[in-house]
Amino acid sequence: MMTNRITKISVKLMLATALVSALFFSACKKNNYSVDLDETPTAPTASQFVPINGNLRVDYFVRNGGPAIKIPIGITNVSGQDREVKLTYTSRNAQSGVQYNAPSSITIKAGSAIDTLNFQGIFAGYPTGRKDTVKIKFSGIPGVERKDSFEVVIQAYCDVVLANLTGVFAKTNEYNGSGAFSWGPYTAGVRNLVATSATTAEGYFMNLYDYGWADLKFTINWATPGAFTVAVPLQAVNSPASGVSYVRTSSGRVNTFSSCDNTFTVSLDLLDANQAVLATGYQFRLAK
């Protein structure tokens, strides 16, 4: 009798344990199945700058009355609501309202994933030689790694008007190869400056060196904004008394001109009758 009772109790315990285990296993399966159904992967929302010509850094040459630069900004998913993307601007020297104007935010419209930031340089804020870098970043919505900032390098650009680059340059000064002042001011000039293509021209410098030199032929090239060049080919100066017989452009030195200020900066090698170098990097700065 006792043995049968123990056996019955054991069987009941085994059945109860099996039932609990089955219920627990069923609950686990149900919960797992619920997670699989309810959790739908959603891409995180992030903003990013769209490269311009493959770059997240651009040179912006500001023209007087010229257009703004347009910077595309995208967002990683489309929404049925408008979304505001806030922006911050930092620069070592450039100031909003003085060197540039740009909005503090843009709005990505519902159903869209991209919009445009209009960044406007202020021409009056850029005298000759000034160059600034402005860094733009996102605020609020995080940015995609390595596409979360954009840099704009700003400087002025003036159209090249050949008539403005000719005539008398009464403020011409000279500097030796070390940059020390050598002679001036005196009057030099430019004559017969004529176009040879859409972005090149040739003409003649008059009275360089202020010592009876012949007019010197030169060429200018403005094909690359921010990198205008002047070249003086090897030629005789026809002034034995000056002690210089030939000149040519000094390589690796500043040889440029400004279409904003109508000035020339040219460095020449001064050569003797045997074309041996007497001085290199002798600089002429012509200004009206």
Can you characterise this structure?
This protein has 288 residues and is mainly beta. The protein is 13% helix and 43% strand. The protein contains 1 helix and 19 strands. It has one helix at 2-38, and strands spanning 47-49, 57-62, 69-75, 83-90, 100-101, 105-108, 114-121, 132-139, 149-156, 167-175, 181-197, 200-206, 216-221, 229-231, 235-236, 246-249, 256-258, 263-271, 277-286. It is elongated. The relative contact order is 0.11.
Beta content comes to: 35-45%
Category by helix and strand content:
mainly beta
How far is the first residue's CA from the last residue's CA?
128 Å
Tally of strands: 19
- Number of helices in the DSSP assignment: 1
Unreliable spans are 1-41
Could you estimate the helical fraction of the residues in percent?
A: 10-25%
What radius of gyration results from the CA coordinates? 37 Å
Shape type: elongated
Biggest sheet statistics = 10 strands, antiparallel
- Return the average pLDDT rounded to an integer: 88
Order of helices and strands: HEEEEEEEEEEEEEEEEEEE
How would you concisely characterize the structure shown here?
The protein has 1 helix and 19 strands. It is mainly β. The strands form 3 sheets. Strands 10, 11, 12, 13, 14, 15, 16, 17, 18 and 19 form a 10-stranded antiparallel sheet that branches. Strands 2-9-8-4-6 form a 5-stranded mixed sheet, with no helix packed on it. A 4-stranded antiparallel sheet has the order 1-3-7-5, with no helix packed on it.
